[in-house]
Every structure is written in structure tokens, then in C-alpha cells.
Amino acid sequence: MEIRSLEDELRGNPYPGRGIVIGRTPDGRFAVTAYFIMGRSVNSRNRIFVEEGEGIRTEAFDPSKLSDPSLIIYAPVRVLNDRTIVTNGDQTDTVYDGLACGKSFEEALAAREFEPDAPNYTPRISGVMEIAAGVFSYKMSILKSADGDPSCCCRYTFSYDRPLAGEGRFIHTYQKDGDPLPGFEGEPERIAVADEDIDSFAGRIWESLNEENKVSLFVRYIEIETGKYESRIINKNL
């Protein structure tokens, strides 16, 4: 699979929806993740990311404009010991609780399906990063309808052991804008991770997202040898 430019992928798609990036810096020192949200409606755009424990949650920027909290208010990032969970919905909690009980990533997600937002049936995308004893690996998942048919849930998990330095994977909810919105297809896109500096990486992603539709971005760099991390949050509404 060709290594693509993340900036080009984002600039060429005005509405990828919500997206997860996981990878490794060029020097191999840091595990990297990014999560962004976009919105077309007033309700979806009325959000910010805020820190919560070792993770983040979404919050209404203007509570008076919050018309429906379902599907838009959740914790996208949570940390369980040496595992960092990143998802586009409240399945973050499902994965966290499942892992805490000894289930695998796949077993935890078996309890969930795509979002019930007909006619889009937005895919649930999820990732889990594990860093233990200086070894980094990760998995990504997508739960989606069968080309818009909600009678079937298609489940795909992709595993990456000892990821290569300087590259990562990118999965997002929608192929492009549309009505209904067409869900992501295929294997997570192989993208270059060109920055050893978290601020440069976050800045490139934020500037590449469609100005009208982007809402919030979270980026975290985790030092593989020590597990220490630093994070950045960018909110359009702040």
C-alpha cells in the first residue's frame, strides 16, 4: 500500500467526518495518535474537547444550543494502564470496561454496532495503543452497515505489531461529503508521520482540515521507552 500524505488526504476531502490517526515518529521514539471531529449541523459544531483524567471528553461550547447530546457528547480518549483507547463515540467506555474485565479489543466491541443515525448509519471507528516494556503495538476497528443496509453489521479489525517509524494509519467515518454520507471503505490508509515535534504535527493536521467543517483536534505523543506523554487540544470555538 502506498504511503500517502495525511495533509493531502485531508485537504482533498471536505468532510471525512471523525478521524483517528495512529503511528510512530520518524526517530521511532514516540507513539502518536490524533483524533479530530467535524460537523455540518449547529449541534455538531457546538462542541469542544476538554481534558478529563488522562483522556478527554466532548462538551457543548454553548449549552443553550445543545439540542441533542446523544452521539456527540462522549469521552473519545481514555487510558487503562499501558493502553490508550481512542474512538469516535461512547464505545470508548465499552472498550475500557471490556479490557478492564480481561476481554480483548475485539470481544469488547462485539457488543456494539454502527451508530443509529439513519440514513447515514455512521461507522464506529476505534483504536487501542499498547505500550509495555518499550514495545509498541496498536489495533484499529470499524463497525459499519452493509453499504447502508442496517440489517447487517460488518466488523473489521486491523492489527499492527511493532509499527514502522515514520508512518501510521488513518481511518475516518466517511469517504466524502454526501447525503446520505458514504461510510469509510477498505483498510486504514497508510500515511506518513513526518514530525518528531507534537506542535508541528498538530498544526499540520489542523490547517489541513476543512475550515468550515472542522471542530476540534486532539494529539498525543507517548514516549515508548518511558510511557510519558504530552498532549495538545485545538478547539475552533475557543
Structure description:
This protein has 238 residues and is an alpha+beta fold. It has one domain (6-235): Glutamine Phosphoribosylpyrophosphate, subunit 1, domain 1 (4-Layer Sandwich). It contains 5 helices and 13 strands. It has a 6-stranded antiparallel sheet, with helices on one face. A hairpin with a 2-residue loop joins strand 5 and strand 6 (83-87). It is globular. It starts with 5 loop residues before the first helix and ends with a strand. The model has no long low-confidence stretch (mean pLDDT 97).
Strand segment tally: 13
Query: What are the secondary-structure elements, in order, as H or E?
Result: HEEHEEEEHHEEEEEHEE
Task: From the 3D structure, determine the CATH topology.
Answer: Glutamine Phosphoribosylpyrophosphate, subunit 1, domain 1
The radius of gyration over CA amounts to 16 Å
Give the mean pLDDT: 97
Shape: globular
Within the largest sheet, what's the order of strands?
11-10-1-2-12-13
Seen as an oligomer or otherwise, the chain set is single chain
Number of continuous helical runs: 5
Spatial separation of the terminal alpha carbons = 38 Å
User: Uncertain segments of ≥5 residues (pLDDT<50)?
Assistant: none
Main beta sheet strand tally, sense and closure: 6 strands, antiparallel
> What is the beta-strand fraction?
35-45%
By CATH reckoning, the class would read Alpha Beta
Helicity, as a percent range: 10-25%
CATH architecture: 4-Layer Sandwich
CATH evolutionary superfamily: Inosine monophosphate cyclohydrolase-like
Structural domain tally: 1
Structural class label:
alpha+beta
